[in-house]
Specification:
Blueprint lengths: L1 E5 L4 E3 L2 H4 L3 E6 L2 E5 L4 E5 L4 E3 L5 E5 L6 E6 L8 E3 L1
């Protein structure tokens, strides 16, 4: 499991090879899914879970001012890597 910390206004790209079959859970703040066509996707709050596989998500963005936290679970991953953006 990885923990992704997104500062207010921050954006992190979703790289398909790294995030294949990943499942995310918002644990603090809000996170907006940015879709492949450039359109803004839904804004998810604390406790919301989402799959990245096959969803067309190209980035995660924090639309708020405070740091948002997302736990990312990738089946088959063997390491725990904290990620701070």
């Amino acid at each position: 499991m990885r923990t992704l910390a997104l500062r207010g206004g921050a954006r992190v790209a979703v790289v398909a090879e790294e995030w294949y079959d990943a499942f995310g859970v918002v644990t603090r703040g809000r996170v907006q899914l940015e879709l492949r066509d450039g359109e803004p996707g839904p804004v998810l709050g604390r406790g919301a879970g989402f799959w990245l596989r096959g969803t067309g998500v190209r980035a995660l963005r924090n639309p708020g001012r405070r740091t948002a936290m997302v736990h990312i679970v990738v089946p088959g991953a063997r390491t725990v890597t904290p990620v701070t953006e």
